[in-house]
């Protein structure tokens, strides 16, 4: 049985930071709009503090995915400096899917990461998928997958005029990657599943799963955790950034399926046959995250099926902290960025 409780011991530098952080103050009466205001403010705040490379051009456009439905995206195209540093080889492409509990967030929530990737000669498409509860639970991953399919199909068919209209430069269509944080990690996982189930296995070369949701908490396999410790959903239920109440609200607003769903709970509901076809996966899990155990068990299940997998555990830090550039002054975040660069080179992103 797995034992992960030791990773919850708070890191001293985060303990100091925590004393300065404002409390969101969500209650059971908080609305979707209350959550959206906080997430939107957080996105703007962290982006304003980004001091990393910006060797790219950023444009906004919309991608038609089906029946006249168009999804807004931000496109990050490497500039001459980034291309020259990479020997002017064709860039890879990465689809960035933001977090926010399926009900909040937008392209600004992850903008800094997109700048960082694109400055390493990567075309980044930051997807502004439609949110729940205004839209059905499967809308976020169908939108994200639809954007990927439309862009990749245009590249395969050499529809360069269409790509140019979207602000997307020519890229290596054999080097496709997805990056998702929190709810975005679940969406990215669902995109990989859809691609395999549609007989396109192998097109997506790698996934970055950052503090991801791998199972509905009501379906968590508690028998897989050592009986001597509490699972993370209990141990970290009042943790910073994401609490069990928050997660319950997000899941309810998402209108999640009542039964095990392979797209929402792949840890317990996805078949071995599909999971073993996954591309390379880089997992970033957080010790103080209530989603920790589900994420780590998902990584272990992948390893057991032979999926090429790497895992980085940010011991003593809370849910998705290092996706927030405002925290990148921490020593732990510097380690996270170095590991992200190592993982990107391991995957072949750049």
Automatic annotation (TrEMBL):
Domain of life: Eukaryota
Domain spans labelled Alpha/beta hydrolase fold-3: 94-321
Pfam family, any one: Abhydrolase_3
Lineage: Eukaryota, Fungi, Dikarya, Ascomycota, Pezizomycotina
Species of origin: Orbilia javanica
InterPro entries attached to this UniProt entry: AB_hydrolase_3, AB_hydrolase_fold
An individual GO BP term: triglyceride catabolic process
Protein name per its UniProtKB record: Alpha/beta hydrolase fold-3 domain-containing protein
Listed PANTHER family: HORMONE-SENSITIVE LIPASE, TRIACYLGLYCEROL LIPASE
GO molecular function per UniProt: sterol ester esterase activity; triacylglycerol lipase activity
Gene Ontology annotations for the cellular component aspect, listed alphabetically: cytosol
């Amino acid at each position: 049985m797995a034992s992960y409780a030791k990773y919850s011991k708070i890191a001293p530098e985060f303990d100091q930071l925590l004393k300065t952080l404002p409390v969101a103050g969500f209650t059971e009466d908080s609305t979707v709009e209350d959550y959206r205001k906080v997430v939107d403010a957080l996105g703007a705040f962290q982006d304003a503090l980004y001091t990393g490379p910006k060797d790219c051009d950023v444009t906004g456009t919309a991608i038609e995915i089906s029946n006249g439905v168009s999804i807004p995206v931000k496109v990050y195209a490497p500039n001459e400096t980034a291309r020259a540093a990479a020997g002017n080889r064709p860039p890879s492409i990465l689809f960035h899917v933001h977090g926010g509990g399926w009900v909040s967030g937008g392209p600004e929530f992850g903008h800094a990461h997109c700048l960082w990737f694109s400055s390493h000669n990567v075309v980044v498409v930051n997807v502004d998928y439609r949110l729940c509860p205004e839209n059905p639970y499967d809308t976020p991953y169908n939108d994200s997958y639809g954007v990927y399919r439309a862009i990749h199909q245009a590249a395969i068919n050499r529809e360069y005029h269409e790509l140019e209209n979207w602000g997307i430069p020519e890229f290596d269509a054999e080097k496709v990657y997805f990056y998702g944080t929190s709810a975005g990690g679940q969406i990215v996982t669902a995109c990989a599943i859809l691609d395999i189930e549609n007989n396109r296995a192998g097109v997506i070369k790698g996934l970055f799963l950052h503090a991801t949701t791998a199972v509905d908490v009501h379906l968590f396999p508690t028998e897989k955790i050592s009986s001597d410790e509490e699972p993370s959903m209990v141990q970290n239920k009042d943790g910073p950034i994401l609490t069990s109440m928050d997660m319950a609200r997000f899941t309810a607003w998402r209108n999640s399926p009542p039964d095990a769903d392979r797209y929402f709970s792949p840890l317990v509901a996805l078949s071995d046959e599909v999971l073993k076809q996954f591309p390379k996966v880089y997992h970033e899990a957080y010790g103080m995250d209530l989603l920790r155990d589900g994420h780590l068990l998902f990584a272990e299940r992948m390893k057991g099926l032979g999926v090429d997998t790497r895992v980085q555990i940010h011991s003593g830090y809370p849910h998705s902290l290092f996706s927030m550039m405002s925290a990148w002054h921490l020593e732990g975040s510097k380690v996270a960025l170095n590991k992200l660069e190592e993982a990107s080179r391991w995957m072949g992103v750049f």
